[in-house]
Amino acid sequence: MFSKMLRTKKIKIILTITVLAIILILLFVYKNFIENNKYEEQTVMAKNYLMEGSFTQAVEAYQKALSMKNSEQELLSIGLAEAYIGSGDYDKALEVLRSCYQNTAGVTIMEKIEEVSLRKTDYEYLDKISRANKYFSNLEYDKAIIEYEKAKVIKSKEVVPYGQITESYIAKGDYLAAKEEVLEGLAVVQSKELDNLLIKVDSYMKSMKYEEIITVAAEYIYQENYEDAIKKYLLAISLKPDIESAYIELAKTYLTLEKYEEAMLLLQSAVKRINSAALDELYEEASLLKQEEDESQRILSEMYQAMVEFDINKTKELMNLSFFQEKIAIKSPIYYGVVGEENISEGYGMIIYDGASVYCGNIKNGMKDGAGVYLVITDPDADMGYYYYQGKWSNDKPNGLGKTEEETTQIDDAGGKHSYLVVTNGGFINGYESGTLHKHIYSDRKEIGSVTYIAQMGIPIPLLDESGQQMWDDQKIEYIIGWMYLNEEKTDEYYSVKPTPLWGVKPFLKKK
Q1: Is 388 exposed, middle or buried (0-12, 13-18, 19+ CB in 10 A)?
Q2: Which of 292, 313, 347 is where one domain is finished?
Q3: Which of 57, 77, 322, 384 yields a CA-CA distance of 20 to 30 A from 417?
Q4: Residue 265 included in any domain
């Protein structure tokens, strides 16, 4: 009976233990069920926050989920990293992933670390570019360059920073720095965009140098240093052949120097490149001036030949031309040589002094010296009306043997025109009559008398009678200088002058 009681008690104990075990198991299962539900709920909540873009709440949710037992470390770490990335905290995201990798060494985590590292680089790069672009838009180029440089450090092989730094330097006008930057970029990465920027920078540098050269050339023009100015303008054209300003200034310089043909050739080449009204107008001006120059040369050549042949009528005809008066005479004095070169200072040539005076003969040091003739048109509107000296010259004045001839127009009582001609031969000193002279007088080209007399520095010497007294014409109150001859025969008439006359080559006489 006692053993039976022991068995019954043993069974009860076993049953009790079994029941307790079952209860414990049930409690454990229930607890795990509850915890798993909470974990699942926390994980879902974290994912929802992440998807909604509520990154701060997502971070808190993922951190709580990670703190739960048996949480999926890799999956939740990746979620937490994304939440940090959403907040822009890439460093915290990488910290979470690296901490997980130390515990799990999982391939997925390693790949995520690499992915986030690249995303961090992109984020930081774009952030710097965005900041720099704002500065650039606000014309704060120095600040923009600093930010673009930071972006370049992050991604050294991206074209954008090099291009934008170059554009910033261009905007500042620092073309040298711009060129250095674009060349640095091309050394790192080949890019059509950078190639075009290099062309752009070179164009700006050429433009800058172009303007500097134009400024220097203008200063040379101001100094009348035309030779160096022309060289500078030609250099500017070689740098920027499609810009009109150097062509215009060089053409104007040629026109100033009366190099009309050079101006026309220059402008012809310019208008082939550039459509410019200013160039067209300059070409028309140069063409007209060239035509005037050609006409001037024609008239000068004919006039020179007429003077060499001493054709007074032809010379007068040419000097009476309106073109001669308006285009040639206004540039006097004009020196014209035997081969047409101007500014002749030695040899034989022609000098035009004004619209009525011309010399042809020997020239020395730019002055009349030797044999030559000086013609003055005294009445350009009349058929008759001229004066000339033909003979020896020195120091730009009549000196030596020569003759003067003066023809004027006289009108008789009936209104008829008659020529009156006086021809004087003899010696001259500095333009004044000196020594023995012979004066012949003509009316309508017919000699009406002549007189021989002696002059001293332009003053005729009185004729003396047999007693050595000065002979006077009391009626005219003039003194007599010589007897009149006609056809080489002495007449009963004499030639008298008023006291203190002054005779010689009229344009060179000065009152004493």
Answers
A1: buried
A2: 292
A3: 322
A4: yes
